[in-house]
Batch of 4 targets.
Target 1
Amino acid sequence: MKKKFNIRDFPELFKKTATSWFNSEPFRLSAIIAYYSILSLPALIIIILNVVGSVWGQDIVQGELLDEITKALGPDTAESIRLMILERGSASTSSFTTVIGIATLIYGSTSVFFQLQSVFDKIWDAESRFKNNIISIIVSRVKSFGFILILGFLLLVSLILTSLLSAFSRQLEHLLPENLFESVFIFDVIMSLIIIYVIFGAMFKFLPSVSVPWKSVRVGAAVTAILFLIGKYILAFYFREMEPGSTYGAAGSIILIMLWVSYTSLILFFGAQFTKVYSDFYIKNNPSETA
């Protein structure tokens, strides 16, 4: 018999999710993702800067990225990443070294998504669609690179909307009451939520090596986006008030990045587990709801 969604089922869904999440060793997996994030970060940022910067301008995109990093991790970490970008971008090399460098850049930038795919496949008990391991790895890397382009596109959309909002606010600054501009912050939060929702939805749908039902993806991505946004502000407050990176001196920025990625990975894995539990609870035995 077909099960219909009921808000009263949420406690049971979250209980099942929490059990599955805890049994999947999320802290070990999040540490792995954090490690690969450190290795991938320079390449990931440089590719996004070049893709989006070719349309919007590299200085503007870099400023926007660093502003978001400052909000999440603090000015010291943002400055470290800025220097990392400058040093990487100023290197002069031969043609052969450039080709090797680009290949290494793409390989490094896709490592995080490649590892996330492995985690999602484990959650869904999925096996690769390709018997040949080499083809499977190549397809996974190409898919991961596609997600980098998606991130770049969403960043571009975010920049355009933010610029339009800023311009609109300046025009109305002298005509409308001051308290009306509180809605700008609300709009910014909603816009962030939508972009995060799209990113998580794309991950949950296309990264696993199985066909995940759209209905499960929509609900799972929504729950994860809300949890992520709440966690984002909590982490920003924690980093600002407690300054956990100050204990590690020069390595503090690296530690903060790893902590942030580790904590947010825990939320991402919880959301992926919730998507699987939701699918099993409502859709698994209802073929008309799949795909």
Target 2
Amino acid sequence: MSFSATPRHILAALLPHLRVAAAYARQIQSRIAAQPAKTADNLFGAALSDADLSIQTFVEVALLGLFPQIRFYGEEHEQSYNTKYFRGIELGDHQGDYLVTLDPIDGTQFYLDGHSNYQIILSVLNWDEFEAVLAITPAQNTYCYALRGEGCWQGTLDQNLDACEPLRVREPQPTILLGWGMETLAPQLEPHYTVLAVATSYSTHTEMPNVNGMLSGALAGAVIRAGNWIDSAALAFMAQEAGCIVTTLDGEPVPPLYTCTHYQRPGLIIAASVSVHRHLLEAVAHSNPR
């Protein structure tokens, strides 16, 4: 089954609902209560809040009302009452059979600790590649979106897609983000950059960039152990559409989605320039963290 609705149409139809979700997340952040932690291999993967569950339910209701035959995979699908009503949660097996994915609160631990750089990330995936990603930063009243082969755009939440301006990453800060499990790369990079390793640099009191820092210019590069479709791989797609370099840890092009498993691409390097990409490749080769 293919859809007459284009990825852009899907984003445009969901944007009003995502604005409401963003306002909700902003409103309750100071009063949020954590849910029992999920099973995960690190603090950030285990964090779960009322907002994660509520926003996913809200978006599911909108999707089922607007696009009842579409596939949908949300981060909290195992706890959702609505998963059974979607045609499937897996990737489609041909072009045009879209899978919509959602990370209702990307950076839940950031959110719970009162930081401002958490996001709501919604993506439209074809069988081989992302077609569209929309990432809202509620606390900053901004959002970005990217369409395959059409670039990345940014605007304020009151603006529609057509009113947004092109986003290009220029003169980023000389800072590198190392995802969980990649902190062994730090010694190779510290002579050239300020290095922030999630496992050792995160603070409940001082905000640090997430992967979304690649879009704001807060980061010159990032290395992540696995590219989850719902968050880091989606942000990498946006960064690539904004002019960044995105490869696997070996420097190879990212593989098609249909070759991947567990809703993940392999480890990724995201770099704002050729020189940064070279430094990150050299650090990975030297440390061999995989």
Target 3
Amino acid sequence: MAKILVVEDEPAIADLILMNLKLVGHTGFHAAGGNEVMGNIEIYKPDLIILDIMLPGKDGFTLMKEIEPLGIPVIFLSAKNELNDKIMGLKLGADDYMVKPFAAVELLTRIETVLKRYKTAGNNVIVIGNLEVDLDARTVLLDGSPAELTIKEFMLLEILIRNKNIALSREKLLELVWGYDYMGETRTVDVHIQRLRKKLDLDSKIKTVYKMGYRLEVPR
């Protein structure tokens, strides 16, 4: 998976991000101030940077001007929610801009999207017991034999894999797989989860989280 530098001066937010990165298999490093960043880049050689704007020392916009020539993808994560700030961040070369407060699952999804674009996410063939999933080729093997999934079933499986060991609500799964404007019910998620469990022998791994949703449990 990827090496990710988290530039964030709020310890609670930094810890939350680092914990979630670890849960999905990434390696996270932390810089609490702007003056540490370039040195940390040299030491850790990150695949991606999550960058706050309001920092002690150099601010995020100043840092972006120094990072951009290095070709490292950047996601701004800031409490600055004005349109002008977002435009400035993207014009400076950032790949994405998220506003605090944020949902960890959305940040992880955006990270994977950016990493996939840069093809730095590492080996995208995931093995879970007797199941082998190639996220790039979008193929699934069960006990070495191809398993046929619909587009939505594969998308749901991919979201569960990319957020393994994290509980996802039905509403969030509905949003990520079917889109913001989908008019159906969360029952749709339950039906597709049951199909994945049956088709891929995942009864013991896709856990139901009471009154919330589902979690794909994978040994760490």
Target 4
Amino acid sequence: MPKFVPFEYEKLAHDEQLRRAQSFFELCKRRRSIREFSSDPIPPEVLELIVQTASSAPSGANKQPWKFIVVTDSKLKKEIREAAEAEEKKNYEERMPQEWLDDLEPFGTDWRKEFLGVAPALIAVFAVNYEKDFDRIRKNYYVKESVGIAVGFLLAAIHNAGLVALTHTPSPMDFLQRILERPDNEKPFLLIPVGYPKDGTKVPDINKKSLDDIRIWR
């Protein structure tokens, strides 16, 4: 028989619900992706709590199919940057169609990824496709969906802690598996530089879609 425990829940008054929802929205809408970082270090206990928050996300059959590799070593960050730039150079010069390059133009990006060496921490998120229990393989379920949700929690926790981040997806990302010495059952999902914005940092002048564009009442 499955074991169940009481669910701790406090029903909020409507005014408090609205206040919290508004406050969280105001916090989240100030989040921006940052490519110019200060090298100021992040307290390790803050990074630990951020990862713990991500690990509280729901997952298929509660398998929690994720690993968060926190990289602060400067030599390792340099190695990751060099490998990422090698792939990105091929992307920008050979792999990406013109339409993709045109869509990226407003962001002013290119294959150079200095932020990977400057940001005080890189969080490499890995999806764990299955678990190894000696000679037995235990399958994980809805891996991509589960890891995607956990990354959402992670980004919200980073922003809530007064830090900035970038969701970086150099493709392919096999180099992360090699450099970070991860086993075959783990696959790189996302690379997130985390830290503080450099003084004078600017961000692209962009807007989010309106509520009417994304919400449909039925």
